[in-house]
Design the sequence.
């Protein structure tokens, strides 16, 4: 249960942004010094506002983008040294929008079977059998085998995307906003399916989502990102009951639970998300933080690990301790 | 009823297709009072956006709109010409769309677009209009409004663009605002800010607000009344407390069970779900539209159309053959 599947150390990813013909390049740090460990059987949720680097991090963990510095190990082996076919057998993605992630010209059967053919399995009977088993697993009727994506509903298409990810029985699945393109009644079906599959196939999930109600429901650990950095990471129940970082608190306060007795929360986060090309000095969150201190604008906080939780905030290091008293 | 802002009776929208006529919206009554927020909830394809477009008379050319009554602030605008409608749109009723990037013109500055609205409806000079536009931008919480007026939409973030949209809608102080999924494209933190802003401005200007959304969390926090739509019909309506504390229609109940609620649903426990799919609305449809997905279905459901029941003091109504007493017994 405690085998480490993914171990990311100090991962940074830079992108060069052109500023115009003669003005040279500028560096955008999409992911900035992230440490992340995913154990087998865990469901790790990455949350944060758009533009905070969630998707870039997921692409690095999938081996689709090389990191600029730092190391990512998959099952103890550097991810860039794992042969592509083996990588694809171990870790698979599920994308947000099932309308654009499926080829409209291929049948469902051939979409789900493609990862097997890529792995060099040529016997069509074996492929068909495995595809039908997987379709059954994700709740797709066998009669859809020869259907095309446009004949299916959004929920069914997302099931096809899940089946395609699972057909080679990977150990880790990275889901990038798996339900945000779907209606609520379909969303609950897909969430139930994901948790059933996890038990049945002993999967490890990395789920990217901005819907915190969904995250609380499905995740075992939550990592909160802000401007490319990890600001807090903890067990789901700990994080939701006792958020430490001011940003996590603001995020949780902004969640609209369906309770007509409550009004609209005012998280007092200020208007704007900072420009990631030109991040604020010190702690990147300090211009929007409700509990900002003088040192926040100067030095970036170093992360504090305690009993499995991680928080990067001056309130919890020696600066905060002296300030509180 | 002098406080009525919008009164729509028996609205239907039909779209002729090759396979037959698609009854996208079928016999909807909408009533909004001053200072009231009506939320229309439903899944995609249930006709909520077409309803709002029908009220604004912005439907696609192919679509056929029919209704018995369309009153805006006590005046019937049912027979208005296109010219008269465009006088009303933007001045007496405004619309906020889902995606602020596509609803602002990328080729003009924010200022150009805001001033145009004022000049079209209020016959103002450019300088006076610019002053009002600047004031309105400040009102929706945009700092350095003077500079912002010279910026193009792509220079603004998503939250700012939506604020600009809201400011533009408010310029001529409309009586009614229709907001079609105004926060769906935004982050949760920005969503809360925009909703708060809408609510404050609404009570300040005493407007009627129709908010179309599929997010029940948003509905619970902002609505005064809720209408739940399913397959082109309103299946349940009532005050926000009635709908959330005591949902009557099986579809509303199903929706409530689908959403994970922090504190109520246990993490990892399976969520409720509504099996099946929304029926095709092409051609004639008899009986309850939810029958195929309902857990309380019986033979009578499919025989004849079901009327919207008006019970418990007339504010709550639902479209089901099972009466309130029976419904209270089943969960």
Sequence:
């Amino acid at each position: 249960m405690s085998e480490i599947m993914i171990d990311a150390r100090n991962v940074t990813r830079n992108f060069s942004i052109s500023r115009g013909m003669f003005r040279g390049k500028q560096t955008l740090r999409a992911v900035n010094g992230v440490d992340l460990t995913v154990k087998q059987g865990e469901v790790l949720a990455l949350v944060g506002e758009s533009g905070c680097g969630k998707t870039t991090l997921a692409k690095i963990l999938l081996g689709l983008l090389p990191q600029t510095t730092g190391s990512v190990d998959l099952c103890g082996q550097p991810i860039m040294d794992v042969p592509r076919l083996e990588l694809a057998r171990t870790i698979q993605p599920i994308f947000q929008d099932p309308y654009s992630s499926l080829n409209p010209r291929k049948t469902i059967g051939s979409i789900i079977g493609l990862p097997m053919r890529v792995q060099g399995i040529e016997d069509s009977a074996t492929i068909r059998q495995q595809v039908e088993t997987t379709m059954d697993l994700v709740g797709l009727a066998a009669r859809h085998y020869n259907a095309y994506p446009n004949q299916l509903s959004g929920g069914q298409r997302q099931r096809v995307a899940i089946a395609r990810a699972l057909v080679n029985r990977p150990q880790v699945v990275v889901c990038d906003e798996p339900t945000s393109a779907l209606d609520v009644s379909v969303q609950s079906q897909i969430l139930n399916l994901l948790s059933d599959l996890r038990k049945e196939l002993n999967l490890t999930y990395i789920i990217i989502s901005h819907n915190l109600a969904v995250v609380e429901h499905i995740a075992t650990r939550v990592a909160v990102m802000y401007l490319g950095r990890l600001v807090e990471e903890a067990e789901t129940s700990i994080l939701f009951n006792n958020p430490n970082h001011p940003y996590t608190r603001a995020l949780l306060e902004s969640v609209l639970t369906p309770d007509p007795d409550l009004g609209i929360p005012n998280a007092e986060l200020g208007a704007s998300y900072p420009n990631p090309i030109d991040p604020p000095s010190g702690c990147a969150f300090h211009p929007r933080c409700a509990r900002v201190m003088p040192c926040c604008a100067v030095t970036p906080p170093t992360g504090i690990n305690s009993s499995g939780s991680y928080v990067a905030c001056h309130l919890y290091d020696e600066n905060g301790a002296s300030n509180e008293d | 009823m002098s406080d009525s802002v919008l009164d729509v009776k028996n609205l239907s929208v039909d779209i002729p297709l090759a396979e037959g006529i698609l009854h996208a919206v079928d016999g909807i009554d909408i009533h909004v009072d001053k200072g009231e927020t009506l939320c229309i909830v439903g899944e995609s394809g249930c006709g909520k956006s077409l309803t709002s477009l029908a009220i604004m008379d912005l439907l696609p050319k192919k679509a056929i709109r029919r209704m018995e009554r369309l009153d805006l602030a006590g005046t019937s605008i049912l027979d208005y010409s296109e010219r008269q409608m465009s006088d009303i749109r933007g001045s007496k009723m405004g619309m906020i769309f889902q995606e602020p990037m596509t609803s602002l013109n990328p080729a003009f500055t924010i200022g150009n677009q805001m001033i145009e609205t004022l000049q079209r409806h209020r016959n103002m000079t450019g300088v006076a209009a610019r002053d009002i536009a600047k004031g309105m931008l400040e009102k929706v919480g945009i700092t350095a409004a003077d500079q912002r007026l010279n910026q193009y939409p792509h220079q603004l973030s998503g939250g700012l663009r939506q604020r600009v949209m809201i400011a533009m809608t408010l310029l001529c102080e409309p009586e009614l605002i229709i907001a079609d999924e105004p926060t769906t494209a935004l982050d949760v933190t920005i969503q809360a800010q925009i909703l708060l802003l809408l609510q404050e401005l609404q009570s300040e200007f005493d407007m009627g607000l129709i908010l179309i959304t599929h997010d029940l969390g948003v509905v619970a926090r902002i609505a005064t009344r809720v209408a739940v739509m399913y397959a082109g019909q309103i299946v349940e309506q009532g005050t926000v407390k009635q709908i959330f504390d005591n949902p009557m229609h099986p579809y509303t109940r199903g929706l409530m069970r689908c959403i994970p609620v922090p504190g109520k649903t246990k993490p990892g426990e399976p969520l409720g779900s509504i099996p099946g799919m929304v029926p095709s609305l092409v051609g004639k449809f008899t009986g309850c539209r939810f029958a195929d997905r309902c857990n309380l279905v019986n033979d009578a459901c499919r025989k004849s159309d079901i009327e919207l029941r008006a019970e418990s003091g007339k504010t709550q109504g639902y479209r089901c053959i099972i009466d309130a007493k029976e419904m209270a017994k089943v969960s």
In short: Chain B has one domain: 4-102+175-329. Chain B touches chain A through 52 residues (CB under 8 Å). The radius of gyration of chain B is 21 Å.
